[in-house]
Amino acid sequence: MMTPLDPFNLDLEKITLIEASAGTGKTYTITTLVARLVAQGFPIESILVVTFTEAAAAELKLRIRDRLSRCLAEPWPRDAGTSADTGESGQSDELLTDELAQFFNDQADPSLVRRRLAHGVTCFDQACIMTIHSFCFQTLKENAFESGAYFDMELLTDSSPFFDQVCMDFFMTRINDLDPLELKFLAQKGVTPETFKSGFRQVVTRPGLDLIPSKARFKDVSDAYRDLTQKIY
């Protein structure tokens, strides 16, 4: 039997895997968990939230900040009998409409929680909400000496221009000046910078791939081929 997820009672000190389909409240759960971590005293910049796309990361930033702001907009902390709208029973006639604010108002020290949330909103520009690639890129740059990374490296969101340039440079420096017989052989096989790129991409992105045969160069048989065709001619 599947147990419904309650982000307000989820143990933040344990590793939890949440698998859910679209529209089931994953973003709502993430915003709740981030708010709870901030309320516990974790600085907003120490909480890492990663996703797959830039659009999703931007939406998460907006949703988390909006969730914290709406929570702080509620009139808490307060006791049941200290509200301006109290009846003879001492109970407040005005209820907190935000469930996150209600949850924090019921904590042992809601005033401290509110100060932590307000500080998190103030320092929200330092929040680490990014894509997986952006996080890895930032980590490499911040630890350039340890990782051996370049200080001026760039994150390419689309590798196609890079592969185009590499393949074109390869043909300009290694192919164009080959023997005419070899060039005719490559033309017959349909080897162009465009067709070469597809095979090159598969090899360079899979370093453990075994090429069979490891060496297959037309140059190794071109002389014998030329001699044979001359004899036949």
Essential attributes:
mainly alpha, Rossmann fold, 233 residues, 2 domains, two-stranded parallel sheet, elongated, 3% strand
Describe this structure in words.
The chain is mostly helical. The chain has two domains: 26-83 and 91-147, Rossmann fold, CATH 3.40.50; 160-232, no CATH class. Helix content is 52%, strand content 3%. It contains ten helices and two strands, in the order αβαααβαααααα. A two-stranded parallel sheet has the order 1-2. The longest helix has 20 residues, at 54-73. The termini are far apart. The model is unreliable at 80-93 (pLDDT under 50).
Please render the helix and strand layout as text:
Elements: H1 26-39, E1 48-51, H2 54-73, H3 99-105, H4 110-122, E2 128-131, H5 132-142, H6 144-147, H7 160-175, H8 180-188, H9 193-204, H10 219-232
Parallel strand pairs: 1-2
Helix pairs in contact: 1-2, 2-4, 7-9
